[in-house]
């Protein structure tokens, strides 16, 4: 969901021998895959992985590696569930296209037709926004804008919708692509209005059950009850940690599904066969094809080795050209999981990679290795490249963290006494944040993220270094604004994994 690997890099314009593709893929999958995965899992500290590769309706690979929970003996198999994050979006886009094919809605319907109380910041846009706009990320928002408010919060869907309506977009309507999770959440309400079923009910009864995705679940509140599900993990400062499952159901259509390599392989086969599986029609051809048509432009695309000429977005799908083939794909990242799903329709190939940490580049490196193997392209060892990039990133992050902690250790004097910073702060859309002195340190707590807090260490003057107790939310410098000897506001930022944009909280 939240990472695009090898984006906009130069191509080496290498060509492949199509006749060798089938043999090359089988050689890699048979001779090298297991050792490749096991080596990568160790390097990235990934407890569990599950992979599926299908071609022409045949299972080339469907298996699990490692364990569901770090330190346990419970092994991952092809039926083990993983949070698939934004790979949920393709199900949402497909559901809308299904309803259109059934004559129950049009993707060009105005959102207001289905949700009379819907609004966004601009009143004209409120009237003109269509269902297509909601699920093609072309509403004018910056990528992830507003997500800190919504992500893993205690907000209900209705509250998410209300707050989304107050967020001022950074760009013009339909002027550029910006990944907007809340748009998919609102699309879920339209699915309910048009079908008479909740998002979870519709996906389960209209997609999962007909396909035979027997283990997949549509809502995060079901994770803990699932008998065969991987635990969520992260890696912080080199240490692997188990983390709680995310509370994702206020935006379920954007990222709440949990599925397995086997079930996602069935999903791939259904899509590759234009809606049929085992001779049974499950989806109309238009319900499959419409979400895969280009709607938004991301850029010209690129790849470090091979030919890639564009990067587009459909309705829940990323689309790109690659060595003369169209790739239909997406990634997903939520608390403790990152995953990838890829289709090569012209070659009738589907690739699924599921992992149970949210801190690895393997999930996409493995995807590219499998894509290249299936297309007969040279072996590139993408994982080594990803590890090198990660090592460089970790060195920079560690140096920055050490610098900030060293500064805090110097006990640099803030411009005002700590008591002057304590109090209640308000953001016009998010709501309240409190700063309290606890054991001589300022601690920030947020109204809609119970259990999460940030400890602030002084960097001198008006700057503090905020460290969250949940590593997913990161460590950031928060500058305060002071006027006439009083604290006026603080600029709050969180990890880029959550949101890039900042929030200005004003002291009450």
Termini separation comes to 36 Å
Global morphology: globular
Q: How helical, in percent, are the residues?
A: 25-40%
User: How would you describe the oligomerization state of the chains in this entry?
Assistant: single chain
Low-confidence stretches: 1-24
- Total number of β-strand segments? 22
Mean pLDDT: 93
Structural class: alpha+beta
Count of helix runs: 15
Measured by DSSP, the beta-strand proportion falls in 15-25%
| Major β-sheet strand ordering | 2-1-14-13-12-11-10-9
Largest sheet: number of strands, sense, barrel closure: 8 strands, antiparallel
- Please tell me how large the radius of gyration is: 23 Å
Topology of this structure?
Layout: H1 21-44, E1 48-55, E2 58-66, E3 82-83, H2 88-101, H3 111-114, H4 123-128, H5 131-134, H6 147-150, H7 157-164, H8 181-195, H9 199-211, E4 232-236, E5 239-243, H10 252-255, E6 258-259, H11 261-272, E7 276-277, E8 280-281, H12 285-289, E9 296-299, E10 311-313, E11 318-322, E12 325-334, E13 337-344, E14 349-355, H13 362-375, H14 382-409, H15 418-421, E15 423-427, E16 431-438, E17 441-446, E18 453-458, E19 463-468, E20 475-483, E21 486-492, E22 503-507
Antiparallel strand pairs: 1-2, 1-14, 3-6, 4-5, 7-8, 9-10, 10-11, 11-12, 12-13, 13-14, 15-16, 15-22, 16-17, 17-18, 18-19, 19-20, 20-21, 21-22
Question: How would you characterize the overall build of this protein?
Answer:
- There is one protein chain.
- Strand 13 and strand 14 form a beta hairpin.
- The chain has 15 helices and 22 strands.
- Strands 2-1-14-13-12-11-10-9 form an eight-stranded antiparallel beta sheet, sandwiched between helices. The chain has an eight-stranded antiparallel barrel with strand order 15-16-17-18-19-20-21-22. Strands 3-6 form a two-stranded antiparallel sheet.
- The protein is an alpha+beta fold and 508 residues long.
């Amino acid at each position: 969901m939240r990472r695009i690997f090898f984006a906009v890099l130069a191509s080496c314009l290498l060509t492949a021998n199509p006749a060798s593709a089938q043999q090359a893929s089988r050689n890699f999958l048979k001779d090298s895959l297991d050792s490749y995965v096991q080596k990568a899992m160790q390097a990235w500290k990934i407890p569990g992985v599950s992979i599926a590769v299908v071609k022409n309706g045949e299972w080339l690979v469907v298996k699990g590696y490692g364990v569901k929970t770090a330190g346990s003996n419970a092994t991952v198999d092809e039926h083990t569930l993983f949070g698939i994050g934004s790979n949920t979006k393709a199900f949402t886009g497909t559901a809308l296209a299904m309803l259109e094919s059934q004559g129950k809605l049009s993707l060009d319907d105005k959102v207001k037709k289905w949700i009379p109380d819907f609004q966004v910041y601009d009143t004209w846009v409120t009237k003109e926004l269509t269902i297509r706009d909601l699920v093609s990320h072309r509403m004018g928002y910056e990528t992830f804008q507003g997500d800190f408010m919504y992500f893993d919060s205690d907000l209900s869907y209705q509250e998410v919708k209300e707050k989304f309506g107050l967020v001022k977009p950074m760009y013009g309507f339909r002027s550029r692509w910006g990944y907007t999770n809340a748009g998919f959440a609102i699309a879920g309400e339209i699915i309910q209005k048009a079908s008479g079923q909740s998002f979870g009910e519709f996906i389960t009864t209209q997609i999962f059950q007909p396909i035979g995705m027997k283990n997949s679940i549509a809502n995060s509140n079901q994770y803990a009850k699932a008998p065969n599900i991987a635990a969520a993990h992260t890696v912080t400062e080199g240490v692997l940690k188990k983390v709680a499952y995310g509370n994702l159901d206020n935006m379920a259509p954007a990222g709440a599904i949990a599925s397995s390599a086997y079930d996602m392989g069935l999903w791939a086969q259904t899509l590759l066969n234009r809606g049929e599986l085992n001779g049974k029609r499950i989806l109309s051809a238009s319900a499959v094809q419409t979400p895969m048509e280009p709607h938004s432009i991301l850029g010209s695309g690129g790849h470090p080795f091979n030919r890639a000429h564009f990067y587009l977005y459909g309705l829940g799908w990323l689309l790109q050209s690659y060595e003369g083939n169209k790739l239909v794909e997406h990634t997903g990242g939520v608390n403790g999981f990152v995953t990838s799903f890829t289709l090569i329709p012209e070659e009738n190939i589907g690739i699924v990679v599921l992992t149970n940490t949210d801190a690895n580049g393997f999930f996409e490196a493995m995807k590219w290795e499998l894509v290249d193997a299936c297309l007969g392209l040279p072996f590139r060892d993408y994982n080594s490249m990803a590890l090198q990039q990660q090592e460089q990133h970790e060195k920079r992050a560690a140096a920055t963290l050490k610098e900030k902690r060293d500064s805090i250790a110097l006990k640099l004097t803030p411009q005002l006494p700590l008591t002057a910073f304590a109090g209640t702060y308000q953001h016009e859309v998010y709501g309240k944040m409190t700063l309290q002195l606890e054991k001589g340190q300022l601690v920030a707590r947020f109204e809609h993220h119970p259990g999460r807090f940030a400890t602030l260490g002084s960097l001198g003057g008006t700057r503090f270094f905020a460290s969250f107790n949940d590593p997913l939310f990161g460590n950031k410098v928060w500058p305060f604004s002071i006027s006439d000897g009083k604290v006026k506001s603080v600029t709050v930022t969180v990890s880029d994994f959550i949101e890039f944009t900042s929030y200005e909280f004003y002291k009450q």
